[in-house]
Design brief:
Order of helices and strands: HHHEEEEEE
CATH topology of the largest domain: Nucleotide Exchange Factor Grpe, Chain A, domain 2
CATH class of the largest domain: Mainly Beta
Radius of gyration: 49 Å
CATH architecture of the largest domain: Roll
Strand order of the largest sheet: 1-4-5
Strand content: 15-25%
Number of strands: 6
Distance between the termini: 144 Å
Length: 191
């Protein structure tokens, strides 16, 4: 019986060793699996960090490009505002030249009709220039007083009933620039 006991004990020891070996094997397998999962988790984390860095870099570059664009357009607008009237002023210089020639001719002019004709030509040239650039005079003669176009500087009694509320006289012409009032006509209104 001792022998059977020893054999049983030996079998139990072998079973225990086998169980321990299995447990060790399972533990080792679990550790390997945990290490593998940790490596996967680290590689996923590295991928996410790389993706974050890429998106952050793209964002920063886009932001810088937008700032450069904004500064460039502001500089262009400032340049346009500063030199926008250059074409108009260059074209008006011809009219100034004509006036200077007319003034020089006044000193030696003997015929007043020639001077009047010269001044009329310069005036017509200036009117033509203004028309080409979209400037037009506001019509005031016998028009109904309109606060969007006229500025009343005085009111006088109406000479007759039909003239009430109408413009009687224009003291200073008003002008449109492309259908926008750039200067109101200063008028006398019948009351």
């Amino acid at each position: 019986m001792n022998k059977t006991k020893k054999e049983g004990q030996q079998a139990a020891n072998e079973n225990t060793e086998e169980i321990l070996d299995n447990k060790n094997q399972e533990t080792q397998n679990q550790e390997v699996q945990n290490e593998s999962e940790a490596k996967e988790s680290l590689s996923e984390l590295d991928e996410l960090k790389a993706k974050y860095e890429q998106l952050n870099d793209t964002y920063l570059r886009s932001r810088a490009e937008f700032e450069n664009y904004r500064k460039r357009t502001l500089a262009e607008k400032a340049e346009l505002i500063k030199n926008g009237g250059e074409k108009v002023l260059t074209n008006i210089l011809g009219v100034i030249d004509d006036f200077e020639r007319g003034l020089n001719a006044l000193e030696t002019a003997e015929n007043i009709e020639a001077v009047k004709e010269g001044m009329t030509l310069v005036y017509n040239k200036l009117q033509s220039f203004l028309k080409q650039n979209g400037v037009a005079a506001i019509d005031t003669k016998d028009q109904v007083f309109d606060t969007d176009l006229h500025e009343a500087i005085t009111m006088i009694p109406a000479p007759d009933e039909s003239m009430k509320g109408k413009v009687v006289d224009c003291v200073q012409k008003g002008y449109f620039l492309n259908d926008k009032v750039i200067r109101f006509a200063k008028v006398v209104v019948a009351n």
